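Renewal narrative, Specific Aim 1. Our central claim is that a sequence can be written position by position from structural information alone. The example that follows is taken directly from our test logs and has not been curated for this report. It begins with the structure tokens describing the chain, in the order in which they were read.
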């Protein structure tokens, strides 16, 4: 179960970065099949390897395992911007998001 999630999450986040498994593997200093093996559930990285993968993908370990965060890097940036808004602007953004989601 977790192996399946892990493999799919690596593939999902890697694809969002528009990088091939081979290029990611080589950028991490591994053999060219390293990420392919992870995505095909033939291997799991060490803890240190996992941290390098997160760093490469631009996510924290918490964001990596957050199934609800489809694009954690973008969400983090959006959250940081939202923190800088005054209450009126924040209420306006909240209203827009609710409208998009169909919630009143």
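The sequence written for that structure reads:
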């Amino acid at each position: 179960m977790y192996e399946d999630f892990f493999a799919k999450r690596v593939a999902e986040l890697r694809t969002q970065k528009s990088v091939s498994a081979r290029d990611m593997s080589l950028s991490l200093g591994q053999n060219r099949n390293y990420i392919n093996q992870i995505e095909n559930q033939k291997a799991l990285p060490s803890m240190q390897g996992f941290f390098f993968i997160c760093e490469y993908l631009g996510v924290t370990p918490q964001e990596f395992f957050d199934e609800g965060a489809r694009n954690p890097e973008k969400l983090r940036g959006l959250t940081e911007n939202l923190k800088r808004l005054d209450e009126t602007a924040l209420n306006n953004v909240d209203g827009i998001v609710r409208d998009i989601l169909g919630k009143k």
